[in-house]
Amino acid sequence: MTPTSPRALRQLAGALLALAIVPAVAFAVLQGLVQSESEAQLAEIRDGQLDGLLFSVNQSAWDVASSWAEQLAWIRAEGAPTDLLPGPVMEFLTERPGVRAVVVADTALATQQVLTLPGEAADTTLVLAEAIGLPSIRRLVAQNQQGYRKLEPATLPGGRLGLVFVADGASSRDAIGPPRVLCMVIDPDPFVSAVVMPKLREVGRGGVALGVFRGGEPVGTTDLDWADVERQRPLWLLPATSVGARAGAGSVEEALQRRAFQSLVLFGGVTLVLGAGAWFAWRGVRREVEVARLREDFVSNVSHELRTPLALIRMYAESLAEGRVPDDRKPRYYATLVAEAERLSRLVGNVLQFSRFERGTVQIAREPLDLGGLVEEIAERYRAVVEREGCTLTVRPADGPLPVLGDRDALAESLVNLLDNAVKYGGAGPVEGSVRAEGGHAVAEVADRGPGIPVADRERVFDPFVRVQPESADGLVHTAKGTGLGLALVRRIAVAHGGTAAVRTREGGGSVFQIALPTHA
Ligand code: ADP
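That is the input. Now the predicted structure with adenosine-5'-diphosphate docked in place:
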Protein backbone atom coordinates (compact mmCIF):
# COMPACT_ATOMS: atom_id res chain seq x y z
CA MET A 1 0.00 0.00 0.00
CA THR A 2 1.29 3.46 -0.73
CA PRO A 3 2.25 5.37 2.41
CA THR A 4 -0.63 7.81 1.97
CA SER A 5 -3.28 5.13 1.66
CA PRO A 6 -3.80 4.32 5.36
CA ARG A 7 -4.25 8.01 6.05
CA ALA A 8 -6.62 8.41 3.13
CA LEU A 9 -8.50 5.35 4.30
CA ARG A 10 -8.67 6.67 7.85
CA GLN A 11 -10.00 9.96 6.53
CA LEU A 12 -12.53 8.11 4.46
CA ALA A 13 -13.56 6.02 7.47
CA GLY A 14 -13.96 9.25 9.45
CA ALA A 15 -16.03 10.80 6.68
CA LEU A 16 -18.25 7.74 6.42
CA LEU A 17 -18.62 7.57 10.16
CA ALA A 18 -19.60 11.22 10.17
CA LEU A 19 -21.99 10.50 7.32
CA ALA A 20 -23.67 7.85 9.42
CA ILE A 21 -23.46 9.65 12.74
CA VAL A 22 -24.30 13.24 11.83
CA PRO A 23 -27.73 12.50 10.33
CA ALA A 24 -28.44 10.06 13.16
CA VAL A 25 -27.56 12.65 15.79
CA ALA A 26 -29.48 15.35 13.92
CA PHE A 27 -32.42 13.02 13.71
CA ALA A 28 -32.17 12.21 17.43
CA VAL A 29 -32.00 15.90 18.36
CA LEU A 30 -34.91 16.74 16.08
CA GLN A 31 -36.91 13.85 17.47
CA GLY A 32 -36.08 14.97 20.98
CA LEU A 33 -37.29 18.49 20.22
CA VAL A 34 -40.44 17.30 18.50
CA GLN A 35 -40.99 14.82 21.29
CA SER A 36 -40.65 17.36 24.07
CA GLU A 37 -42.76 19.84 22.13
CA SER A 38 -45.52 17.34 21.60
CA GLU A 39 -45.12 16.19 25.18
CA ALA A 40 -45.68 19.75 26.29
CA GLN A 41 -48.65 20.06 23.95
CA LEU A 42 -50.12 16.80 25.10
CA ALA A 43 -49.54 17.72 28.73
CA GLU A 44 -51.30 21.02 28.10
CA ILE A 45 -54.22 19.25 26.49
CA ARG A 46 -54.32 16.76 29.33
CA ASP A 47 -54.25 19.52 31.95
CA GLY A 48 -57.02 21.29 30.08
CA GLN A 49 -59.07 18.12 30.05
CA LEU A 50 -58.51 17.51 33.73
CA ASP A 51 -59.42 21.11 34.54
CA GLY A 52 -62.62 20.67 32.56
CA LEU A 53 -63.50 17.56 34.54
CA LEU A 54 -62.75 19.25 37.86
CA PHE A 55 -64.88 22.20 36.80
CA SER A 56 -67.77 19.94 35.90
CA VAL A 57 -67.52 18.19 39.30
CA ASN A 58 -67.54 21.54 41.07
CA GLN A 59 -70.39 22.81 38.96
CA SER A 60 -72.53 19.77 39.56
CA ALA A 61 -72.05 19.89 43.35
CA TRP A 62 -72.97 23.54 43.24
CA ASP A 63 -75.99 22.86 41.05
CA VAL A 64 -77.28 20.18 43.39
CA ALA A 65 -76.96 22.46 46.40
CA SER A 66 -78.62 25.35 44.53
CA SER A 67 -81.51 23.19 43.45
CA TRP A 68 -81.97 22.08 47.05
CA ALA A 69 -81.96 25.72 48.13
CA GLU A 70 -84.51 26.46 45.43
CA GLN A 71 -86.74 23.64 46.68
CA LEU A 72 -86.44 24.80 50.24
CA ALA A 73 -87.27 28.36 49.28
CA TRP A 74 -90.28 27.04 47.42
CA ILE A 75 -91.50 25.29 50.56
CA ARG A 76 -90.99 28.48 52.44
CA ALA A 77 -92.78 30.57 49.86
CA GLU A 78 -95.68 28.17 49.65
CA GLY A 79 -96.05 28.04 53.35
CA ALA A 80 -96.98 30.62 55.90
CA PRO A 81 -94.92 33.75 55.55
CA THR A 82 -93.59 33.60 59.03
CA ASP A 83 -93.22 29.91 59.63
CA LEU A 84 -91.71 26.97 57.88
CA LEU A 85 -94.02 24.09 57.42
CA PRO A 86 -92.64 21.27 59.54
CA GLY A 87 -94.16 18.53 57.37
CA PRO A 88 -92.62 19.41 53.99
CA VAL A 89 -89.38 20.42 55.68
CA MET A 90 -89.16 17.02 57.38
CA GLU A 91 -89.74 15.42 54.01
CA PHE A 92 -87.06 17.64 52.53
CA LEU A 93 -84.61 16.63 55.23
CA THR A 94 -85.36 12.95 54.81
CA GLU A 95 -84.76 13.01 51.07
CA ARG A 96 -81.62 15.15 50.97
CA PRO A 97 -78.57 13.15 52.06
CA GLY A 98 -76.19 15.22 54.08
CA VAL A 99 -78.66 17.97 55.00
CA ARG A 100 -79.01 17.72 58.78
CA ALA A 101 -81.01 20.79 59.64
CA VAL A 102 -82.85 23.75 58.23
CA VAL A 103 -82.57 27.01 60.07
CA VAL A 104 -84.68 30.10 59.53
CA ALA A 105 -83.95 33.50 60.98
CA ASP A 106 -84.93 37.07 60.34
CA THR A 107 -82.40 39.19 58.49
CA ALA A 108 -81.33 40.86 61.68
CA LEU A 109 -80.56 37.36 62.94
CA ALA A 110 -82.47 38.24 66.06
CA THR A 111 -84.77 35.24 66.07
CA GLN A 112 -84.25 31.82 64.68
CA GLN A 113 -85.94 28.52 64.37
CA VAL A 114 -84.15 25.20 63.85
CA LEU A 115 -85.83 22.27 62.21
CA THR A 116 -84.15 18.87 62.32
CA LEU A 117 -85.17 15.28 61.91
CA PRO A 118 -86.16 13.71 65.24
CA GLY A 119 -83.17 12.63 67.29
CA GLU A 120 -80.80 15.11 65.67
CA ALA A 121 -78.86 17.36 67.96
CA ALA A 122 -79.35 20.88 66.73
CA ASP A 123 -76.83 22.65 68.88
CA THR A 124 -74.45 23.51 66.03
CA THR A 125 -77.06 25.64 64.36
CA LEU A 126 -77.22 27.89 67.37
CA VAL A 127 -74.00 29.55 66.32
CA LEU A 128 -75.39 30.39 62.94
CA ALA A 129 -75.51 34.08 63.69
CA GLU A 130 -71.81 34.20 64.54
CA ALA A 131 -70.85 32.10 61.59
CA ILE A 132 -72.47 34.10 58.87
CA GLY A 133 -72.35 37.66 60.23
CA LEU A 134 -74.51 40.59 59.37
CA PRO A 135 -72.47 42.05 56.49
CA SER A 136 -72.88 38.91 54.43
CA ILE A 137 -76.60 38.79 55.32
CA ARG A 138 -76.99 42.31 54.03
CA ARG A 139 -75.22 41.39 50.83
CA LEU A 140 -77.46 38.36 50.37
CA VAL A 141 -80.58 40.45 50.97
CA ALA A 142 -79.45 43.04 48.44
CA GLN A 143 -78.81 40.33 45.86
CA ASN A 144 -82.18 38.77 46.65
CA GLN A 145 -83.88 42.04 46.03
CA GLN A 146 -82.11 42.27 42.66
CA GLY A 147 -83.91 39.08 41.80
CA TYR A 148 -81.39 36.29 42.27
CA ARG A 149 -80.40 34.05 45.05
CA LYS A 150 -76.90 33.30 46.18
CA LEU A 151 -75.60 30.55 48.39
CA GLU A 152 -72.97 31.45 50.95
CA PRO A 153 -71.10 28.67 52.65
CA ALA A 154 -70.42 29.18 56.36
CA THR A 155 -68.36 26.80 58.41
CA LEU A 156 -70.04 25.65 61.56
CA PRO A 157 -68.46 23.96 64.56
CA GLY A 158 -68.05 20.21 64.22
CA GLY A 159 -67.00 20.44 60.59
CA ARG A 160 -70.52 21.06 59.41
CA LEU A 161 -71.35 23.49 56.75
CA GLY A 162 -74.09 26.01 56.61
CA LEU A 163 -75.36 27.02 53.22
CA VAL A 164 -76.99 30.33 53.84
CA PHE A 165 -79.32 32.10 51.46
CA VAL A 166 -82.17 34.58 51.61
CA ALA A 167 -85.31 32.80 50.74
CA ASP A 168 -88.10 35.32 50.52
CA GLY A 169 -88.09 38.85 49.39
CA ALA A 170 -89.00 40.63 46.21
CA SER A 171 -88.65 37.50 44.12
CA SER A 172 -90.67 35.13 46.27
CA ARG A 173 -94.34 34.72 45.81
CA ASP A 174 -96.55 35.77 48.75
CA ALA A 175 -93.61 37.47 50.31
CA ILE A 176 -94.73 39.41 53.28
CA GLY A 177 -92.59 41.16 55.81
CA PRO A 178 -88.83 41.24 55.88
CA PRO A 179 -86.93 38.56 54.04
CA ARG A 180 -85.90 35.58 56.05
CA VAL A 181 -82.54 33.98 56.08
CA LEU A 182 -82.64 30.29 55.47
CA CYS A 183 -79.85 27.91 56.13
CA MET A 184 -79.34 24.31 55.18
CA VAL A 185 -76.91 22.68 57.52
CA ILE A 186 -74.93 20.20 55.54
CA ASP A 187 -72.69 17.47 56.83
CA PRO A 188 -69.80 17.56 54.28
CA ASP A 189 -68.83 13.88 54.35
CA PRO A 190 -72.28 12.40 53.64
CA PHE A 191 -72.78 15.18 51.07
CA VAL A 192 -69.57 14.13 49.32
CA SER A 193 -70.49 10.47 49.26
CA ALA A 194 -74.11 11.05 48.23
CA VAL A 195 -73.67 13.90 45.75
CA VAL A 196 -70.05 14.35 44.68
CA MET A 197 -68.99 10.72 44.43
CA PRO A 198 -71.59 9.66 41.85
CA LYS A 199 -70.41 12.52 39.69
CA LEU A 200 -66.76 11.51 40.15
CA ARG A 201 -67.59 7.98 39.11
CA GLU A 202 -69.43 9.27 36.07
CA VAL A 203 -66.65 11.53 34.81
CA GLY A 204 -63.94 9.06 35.83
CA ARG A 205 -65.20 6.44 33.41
CA GLY A 206 -62.68 7.49 30.73
CA GLY A 207 -59.81 6.15 32.84
CA VAL A 208 -59.32 9.33 34.87
CA ALA A 209 -58.91 8.83 38.64
CA LEU A 210 -60.58 11.49 40.80
CA GLY A 211 -60.91 12.14 44.47
CA VAL A 212 -62.17 14.58 47.08
CA PHE A 213 -59.57 15.48 49.67
CA ARG A 214 -59.43 17.50 52.84
CA GLY A 215 -55.95 18.36 54.13
CA GLY A 216 -54.42 15.66 51.94
CA GLU A 217 -56.75 13.01 53.34
CA PRO A 218 -59.28 11.36 51.02
CA VAL A 219 -62.93 12.09 51.74
CA GLY A 220 -64.01 10.03 48.80
CA THR A 221 -62.05 8.81 45.77
CA THR A 222 -62.19 6.64 42.69
CA ASP A 223 -58.91 5.00 43.55
CA LEU A 224 -56.57 7.97 43.78
CA ASP A 225 -53.90 8.89 46.33
CA TRP A 226 -53.26 12.52 47.17
CA ALA A 227 -49.61 12.00 46.15
CA ASP A 228 -50.68 10.97 42.65
CA VAL A 229 -52.94 13.94 42.07
CA GLU A 230 -51.92 15.84 38.94
CA ARG A 231 -54.47 18.68 38.95
CA GLN A 232 -56.60 19.87 41.80
CA ARG A 233 -59.13 22.62 42.43
CA PRO A 234 -60.85 23.73 45.61
CA LEU A 235 -64.39 22.40 45.83
CA TRP A 236 -66.35 25.65 45.66
CA LEU A 237 -69.06 24.47 47.95
CA LEU A 238 -67.07 22.88 50.74
CA PRO A 239 -64.40 25.03 52.38
CA ALA A 240 -60.98 23.42 52.87
CA THR A 241 -61.97 20.65 50.52
CA SER A 242 -60.55 20.06 47.10
CA VAL A 243 -61.16 17.77 44.20
CA GLY A 244 -58.14 16.26 42.44
CA ALA A 245 -57.60 14.21 39.31
CA ARG A 246 -54.97 12.17 37.54
CA ALA A 247 -55.11 11.20 33.87
CA GLY A 248 -55.50 7.46 33.43
CA ALA A 249 -52.52 5.29 32.53
CA GLY A 250 -54.15 4.39 29.24
CA SER A 251 -54.37 7.94 28.05
CA VAL A 252 -51.79 10.62 27.48
CA GLU A 253 -48.85 8.89 29.21
CA GLU A 254 -49.36 5.83 27.11
CA ALA A 255 -49.64 7.86 23.94
CA LEU A 256 -46.40 9.61 24.84
CA GLN A 257 -44.67 6.38 25.65
CA ARG A 258 -45.90 4.88 22.40
CA ARG A 259 -44.65 7.88 20.50
CA ALA A 260 -41.28 7.70 22.25
CA PHE A 261 -40.99 4.01 21.43
CA GLN A 262 -41.89 4.58 17.80
CA SER A 263 -39.31 7.34 17.59
CA LEU A 264 -36.73 5.06 19.13
CA VAL A 265 -37.47 2.30 16.64
CA LEU A 266 -37.37 4.78 13.77
CA PHE A 267 -34.15 6.28 15.07
CA GLY A 268 -32.60 2.84 15.47
CA GLY A 269 -33.71 1.87 11.96
CA VAL A 270 -32.33 5.02 10.37
CA THR A 271 -29.03 4.64 12.21
CA LEU A 272 -28.83 1.02 11.17
CA VAL A 273 -29.51 1.82 7.53
CA LEU A 274 -27.01 4.68 7.50
CA GLY A 275 -24.46 2.57 9.36
CA ALA A 276 -24.94 -0.32 6.94
CA GLY A 277 -24.62 2.07 3.98
CA ALA A 278 -21.45 3.56 5.40
CA TRP A 279 -20.08 0.10 6.07
CA PHE A 280 -20.78 -1.07 2.51
CA ALA A 281 -19.25 2.10 1.11
CA TRP A 282 -16.22 1.61 3.34
CA ARG A 283 -15.86 -2.00 2.30
CA GLY A 284 -16.17 -1.12 -1.37
CA VAL A 285 -13.62 1.63 -1.17
CA ARG A 286 -11.26 -0.49 0.87
CA ARG A 287 -11.46 -3.19 -1.76
CA GLU A 288 -10.80 -0.64 -4.48
CA VAL A 289 -7.80 0.65 -2.59
CA GLU A 290 -6.58 -2.90 -2.12
CA VAL A 291 -6.97 -3.63 -5.84
CA ALA A 292 -5.19 -0.38 -6.68
CA ARG A 293 -2.37 -1.38 -4.37
CA LEU A 294 -2.20 -4.86 -5.91
CA ARG A 295 -2.06 -3.37 -9.39
CA GLU A 296 0.75 -1.12 -8.29
CA ASP A 297 2.64 -4.12 -6.93
CA PHE A 298 1.84 -5.97 -10.12
CA VAL A 299 3.47 -3.35 -12.30
CA SER A 300 6.62 -3.37 -10.26
CA ASN A 301 6.62 -7.19 -10.12
CA VAL A 302 6.15 -7.50 -13.87
CA SER A 303 8.95 -5.04 -14.52
CA HIS A 304 11.22 -7.05 -12.30
CA GLU A 305 10.11 -10.33 -13.82
CA LEU A 306 10.89 -8.98 -17.27
CA ARG A 307 14.17 -7.41 -16.36
CA THR A 308 15.75 -10.46 -14.70
CA PRO A 309 15.49 -12.94 -17.58
CA LEU A 310 16.30 -10.22 -20.12
CA ALA A 311 19.47 -9.34 -18.23
CA LEU A 312 20.46 -13.00 -18.07
CA ILE A 313 19.73 -13.58 -21.74
CA ARG A 314 21.70 -10.53 -22.72
CA MET A 315 24.66 -11.44 -20.55
CA TYR A 316 24.79 -15.07 -21.71
CA ALA A 317 24.20 -14.18 -25.35
CA GLU A 318 26.93 -11.52 -25.28
CA SER A 319 29.36 -13.92 -23.70
CA LEU A 320 28.59 -16.49 -26.37
CA ALA A 321 28.76 -13.93 -29.17
CA GLU A 322 32.13 -12.67 -28.02
CA GLY A 323 33.47 -16.23 -27.86
CA ARG A 324 34.30 -15.94 -24.20
CA VAL A 325 32.60 -19.19 -23.22
CA PRO A 326 34.61 -22.42 -23.20
CA ASP A 327 33.05 -25.19 -25.27
CA ASP A 328 32.31 -27.40 -22.28
CA ARG A 329 30.20 -24.70 -20.66
CA LYS A 330 28.32 -23.76 -23.77
CA PRO A 331 25.50 -26.31 -23.35
CA ARG A 332 24.70 -24.85 -19.91
CA TYR A 333 24.65 -21.35 -21.39
CA TYR A 334 22.34 -22.43 -24.15
CA ALA A 335 20.06 -24.23 -21.70
CA THR A 336 19.90 -21.10 -19.55
CA LEU A 337 19.08 -19.00 -22.58
CA VAL A 338 16.27 -21.33 -23.53
CA ALA A 339 14.94 -21.51 -19.96
CA GLU A 340 14.98 -17.77 -19.48
CA ALA A 341 13.34 -17.21 -22.85
CA GLU A 342 10.68 -19.72 -21.85
CA ARG A 343 10.18 -17.90 -18.55
CA LEU A 344 9.79 -14.66 -20.44
CA SER A 345 7.28 -16.09 -22.85
CA ARG A 346 5.31 -17.71 -19.97
CA LEU A 347 5.17 -14.39 -18.24
CA VAL A 348 4.09 -12.49 -21.30
CA GLY A 349 1.64 -15.28 -22.15
CA ASN A 350 0.09 -15.04 -18.67
CA VAL A 351 -0.28 -11.28 -18.88
CA LEU A 352 -1.84 -11.47 -22.35
CA GLN A 353 -4.18 -14.28 -21.38
CA PHE A 354 -5.27 -12.43 -18.26
CA SER A 355 -5.98 -9.28 -20.21
CA ARG A 356 -8.04 -11.36 -22.66
CA PHE A 357 -10.05 -12.71 -19.73
CA GLU A 358 -10.47 -9.19 -18.37
CA ARG A 359 -11.71 -7.88 -21.69
CA GLY A 360 -13.87 -10.94 -22.24
CA THR A 361 -12.19 -11.75 -25.50
CA VAL A 362 -10.77 -15.09 -24.46
CA GLN A 363 -11.77 -18.00 -26.62
CA ILE A 364 -11.77 -21.45 -25.12
CA ALA A 365 -11.72 -24.24 -27.68
CA ARG A 366 -13.72 -27.33 -26.89
CA GLU A 367 -11.83 -30.18 -28.42
CA PRO A 368 -11.88 -33.69 -27.00
CA LEU A 369 -8.69 -34.50 -25.18
CA ASP A 370 -7.37 -36.82 -22.50
CA LEU A 371 -6.49 -34.86 -19.37
CA GLY A 372 -4.24 -37.68 -18.11
CA GLY A 373 -2.29 -37.62 -21.36
CA LEU A 374 -2.00 -33.83 -21.25
CA VAL A 375 -0.66 -33.87 -17.69
CA GLU A 376 1.99 -36.44 -18.60
CA GLU A 377 2.94 -34.50 -21.72
CA ILE A 378 3.36 -31.23 -19.79
CA ALA A 379 5.29 -32.97 -17.03
CA GLU A 380 7.72 -34.35 -19.57
CA ARG A 381 8.10 -31.01 -21.24
CA TYR A 382 8.63 -29.26 -17.94
CA ARG A 383 10.75 -31.90 -16.22
CA ALA A 384 14.02 -30.30 -17.21
CA VAL A 385 12.99 -26.99 -15.65
CA VAL A 386 11.90 -28.69 -12.45
CA GLU A 387 15.06 -30.68 -12.15
CA ARG A 388 17.25 -27.74 -12.93
CA GLU A 389 15.82 -26.14 -9.79
CA GLY A 390 16.84 -29.19 -7.80
CA CYS A 391 13.39 -30.72 -7.50
CA THR A 392 12.09 -34.11 -8.56
CA LEU A 393 8.92 -34.54 -10.53
CA THR A 394 6.81 -37.69 -10.54
CA VAL A 395 3.40 -38.21 -12.12
CA ARG A 396 0.90 -40.80 -10.94
CA PRO A 397 -1.07 -41.71 -14.08
CA ALA A 398 -4.80 -42.35 -14.18
CA ASP A 399 -6.28 -45.85 -14.41
CA GLY A 400 -7.67 -45.06 -17.82
CA PRO A 401 -8.27 -42.17 -20.16
CA LEU A 402 -9.89 -39.03 -18.76
CA PRO A 403 -11.74 -37.51 -21.69
CA VAL A 404 -12.65 -33.84 -21.39
CA LEU A 405 -13.75 -31.19 -23.82
CA GLY A 406 -11.20 -28.48 -23.54
CA ASP A 407 -8.66 -26.03 -24.81
CA ARG A 408 -5.30 -27.79 -24.96
CA ASP A 409 -3.20 -24.61 -24.80
CA ALA A 410 -5.16 -23.02 -22.00
CA LEU A 411 -5.14 -26.20 -19.90
CA ALA A 412 -1.42 -26.66 -20.56
CA GLU A 413 -0.87 -23.10 -19.41
CA SER A 414 -2.75 -23.86 -16.18
CA LEU A 415 -0.72 -26.97 -15.49
CA VAL A 416 2.56 -25.17 -16.18
CA ASN A 417 1.53 -22.41 -13.78
CA LEU A 418 0.85 -24.99 -11.08
CA LEU A 419 4.16 -26.78 -11.72
CA ASP A 420 5.95 -23.45 -11.80
CA ASN A 421 4.48 -22.50 -8.42
CA ALA A 422 5.32 -25.92 -6.94
CA VAL A 423 8.94 -25.36 -7.93
CA LYS A 424 8.96 -21.69 -6.90
CA TYR A 425 7.41 -22.15 -3.50
CA GLY A 426 8.05 -25.86 -2.90
CA GLY A 427 11.38 -25.35 -1.17
CA ALA A 428 13.23 -27.74 -3.57
CA GLY A 429 11.07 -30.58 -2.37
CA PRO A 430 9.58 -33.28 -4.58
CA VAL A 431 6.76 -32.23 -6.88
CA GLU A 432 4.06 -34.79 -7.60
CA GLY A 433 1.45 -34.73 -10.32
CA SER A 434 -1.53 -37.05 -10.38
CA VAL A 435 -4.70 -37.57 -12.37
CA ARG A 436 -7.88 -39.49 -11.56
CA ALA A 437 -11.55 -39.71 -12.28
CA GLU A 438 -13.82 -38.58 -9.45
CA GLY A 439 -17.60 -38.11 -9.43
CA GLY A 440 -18.00 -37.28 -13.11
CA HIS A 441 -14.90 -35.14 -13.13
CA ALA A 442 -11.39 -35.50 -14.41
CA VAL A 443 -9.12 -34.31 -11.64
CA ALA A 444 -5.53 -33.18 -12.06
CA GLU A 445 -3.45 -32.34 -9.00
CA VAL A 446 -0.03 -30.88 -8.38
CA ALA A 447 1.37 -31.43 -4.88
CA ASP A 448 4.47 -30.00 -3.26
CA ARG A 449 6.18 -30.05 0.11
CA GLY A 450 6.36 -26.30 0.44
CA PRO A 451 5.03 -24.13 3.28
CA GLY A 452 1.41 -24.49 2.23
CA ILE A 453 -1.07 -21.65 2.09
CA PRO A 454 -2.67 -20.21 5.24
CA VAL A 455 -6.34 -21.13 5.49
CA ALA A 456 -7.37 -17.47 5.42
CA ASP A 457 -5.63 -16.98 2.06
CA ARG A 458 -6.82 -20.10 0.28
CA GLU A 459 -9.48 -18.30 -1.69
CA ARG A 460 -7.64 -15.01 -2.05
CA VAL A 461 -4.69 -16.53 -3.86
CA PHE A 462 -6.98 -17.20 -6.80
CA ASP A 463 -7.74 -13.47 -7.08
CA PRO A 464 -5.70 -11.49 -9.60
CA PHE A 465 -2.53 -9.79 -8.34
CA VAL A 466 -2.79 -11.37 -4.90
CA ARG A 467 0.50 -12.65 -3.58
CA VAL A 468 0.79 -13.96 -0.06
CA GLN A 469 4.07 -14.37 1.66
CA PRO A 470 4.04 -17.73 3.37
CA GLU A 471 7.06 -18.85 5.31
CA SER A 472 9.42 -21.02 3.37
CA ALA A 473 10.80 -24.29 4.68
CA ASP A 474 13.76 -22.54 6.25
CA GLY A 475 11.41 -20.36 8.30
CA LEU A 476 11.97 -17.26 6.22
CA VAL A 477 9.36 -15.35 4.36
CA HIS A 478 9.71 -16.37 0.74
CA THR A 479 11.06 -13.84 -1.67
CA ALA A 480 10.10 -15.57 -4.90
CA LYS A 481 9.08 -13.08 -7.50
CA GLY A 482 5.84 -13.31 -9.35
CA THR A 483 2.96 -11.33 -10.75
CA GLY A 484 0.04 -12.77 -8.81
CA LEU A 485 -1.66 -13.74 -12.06
CA GLY A 486 -0.82 -17.46 -12.24
CA LEU A 487 -3.51 -18.88 -9.97
CA ALA A 488 -6.08 -16.30 -11.14
CA LEU A 489 -5.61 -17.69 -14.63
CA VAL A 490 -5.73 -21.29 -13.41
CA ARG A 491 -9.12 -20.68 -11.86
CA ARG A 492 -10.50 -18.66 -14.77
CA ILE A 493 -9.47 -21.32 -17.24
CA ALA A 494 -11.02 -24.07 -15.08
CA VAL A 495 -14.24 -22.12 -14.68
CA ALA A 496 -14.34 -21.41 -18.41
CA HIS A 497 -14.34 -25.20 -18.85
CA GLY A 498 -17.23 -25.59 -16.41
CA GLY A 499 -14.86 -26.89 -13.74
CA THR A 500 -13.19 -25.71 -10.53
CA ALA A 501 -9.76 -24.91 -9.15
CA ALA A 502 -8.89 -25.17 -5.45
CA VAL A 503 -6.08 -25.72 -3.00
CA ARG A 504 -5.84 -27.79 0.16
CA THR A 505 -3.19 -28.62 2.70
CA ARG A 506 -1.16 -31.67 1.94
CA GLU A 507 -0.88 -34.30 4.60
CA GLY A 508 2.61 -34.15 6.02
CA GLY A 509 3.09 -30.55 4.83
CA GLY A 510 2.77 -28.68 1.58
CA SER A 511 -0.11 -27.87 -0.72
CA VAL A 512 -2.17 -29.71 -3.25
CA PHE A 513 -3.57 -27.64 -6.10
CA GLN A 514 -6.40 -29.24 -7.95
CA ILE A 515 -8.16 -28.66 -11.26
CA ALA A 516 -11.42 -30.59 -11.76
CA LEU A 517 -13.11 -30.59 -15.18
CA PRO A 518 -16.33 -32.32 -16.18
CA THR A 519 -15.57 -35.54 -18.05
CA HIS A 520 -16.83 -35.89 -21.57
CA ALA A 521 -18.47 -39.21 -22.41
P1 ADP B 1 2.74 -15.59 -8.32
O1 ADP B 1 3.28 -16.96 -8.16
O2 ADP B 1 3.14 -14.95 -9.59
O3 ADP B 1 2.93 -14.75 -7.12
P2 ADP B 1 0.20 -16.93 -8.36
O4 ADP B 1 -1.15 -16.46 -8.69
O5 ADP B 1 0.70 -18.09 -9.11
O6 ADP B 1 1.15 -15.71 -8.45
O7 ADP B 1 0.22 -17.30 -6.83
C1 ADP B 1 -0.33 -16.42 -5.92
C2 ADP B 1 0.32 -16.61 -4.57
O8 ADP B 1 -0.06 -17.87 -4.04
C3 ADP B 1 1.80 -16.65 -4.60
O9 ADP B 1 2.35 -15.34 -4.49
C4 ADP B 1 2.18 -17.49 -3.42
O10 ADP B 1 2.23 -16.67 -2.26
C5 ADP B 1 1.00 -18.42 -3.28
N1 ADP B 1 1.29 -19.74 -3.84
C6 ADP B 1 1.05 -20.18 -5.09
N2 ADP B 1 1.42 -21.44 -5.23
C7 ADP B 1 1.94 -21.84 -4.04
C8 ADP B 1 2.50 -23.05 -3.55
N3 ADP B 1 2.63 -24.15 -4.33
N4 ADP B 1 2.91 -23.09 -2.28
C9 ADP B 1 2.78 -22.02 -1.48
N5 ADP B 1 2.25 -20.85 -1.88
C10 ADP B 1 1.84 -20.75 -3.15
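DSSP finds ten helices and 16 strands in the chain.
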